[in-house]
Predict the structure.
Amino acid sequence: MKIQTRITFTIEDRKKAERILDSLDLPINEKSNTYAVILLVDDDKYRLLTNELSNRSIHFLELCEMTFNQDELNEAEFLRMAPAGYWGYPQPENDFGYQQESYDKSSECSFCGSGAKQIKPFLVKSQPKFGMNDILAINWEYEFLITLKLKSLLEDAELTGVEFWSILNFKKRKTITDYYQLYITNELPCISPRTEFEIVNFERVKIPCPCGKIGRNLSTHQIIYKQRDLNNAKDFNKTHEWLGGGYGTTQWKIVSNRVYQLFRDHNIKRVKFEPILIES
């Protein structure tokens, strides 16, 4: 596993930006005065670029994530499956009214607002437009929507721990054909206490919230489970914990290697996989 970072910064003087990036043999975008560079943090260019920007008092932002090689992915017994593409919004959008339509809010924290459980299908404005994709996540809730093609592949493989919920048209309240929500039914026990959570700070919420459902993320550390806590795992699972880098946390999706192999073999894009660690 390696840590990859996306560094973004703005320089109005293009020649100044060219001097910095050319000296490190880094690409320069053609039009914008905002520049983005993707590097591994153990690459010498990462140290040189961040030092140069700091020395010149140029403000920059970093977005870090883990990256894995093919062997690490192929050999992982279980992996986190996360969105890498999105379509649409649950309805109604105003004041997050969709939560009243699709969620049981009695389980959410009255302080931070996390923890509501979905009990009814999502309402959406129109027929999804996925292009060439077979899976995308719905915005705000990060739940996966899939095509009939992918549903058939998963059913034929007899993968466990998942149901296929209908998606409904918001105005007509009728089922939208050929698209489904990938609804995960199996919840895992708690993650190992050896997992190194990253604490996310917010202005309006004391972190971590007493409910434990907001304030923890894992962008540069892997999830760890004890082996015994995976003995009853299905092919599709969700974490007991609510995790994420923003106010809207979710139960993350943990899938078996069978799921990963099916997605890889059928070239299913717009998701990303991260191996989890298992301790005895």
The chain has a mean pLDDT of 94. The helical segments are 14-23, 44-55, 70-75, 98-102, 148-156, 257-265. Residues 46 and 65 are 14 Å apart (CA to CA). The chain has six helices and 18 strands.
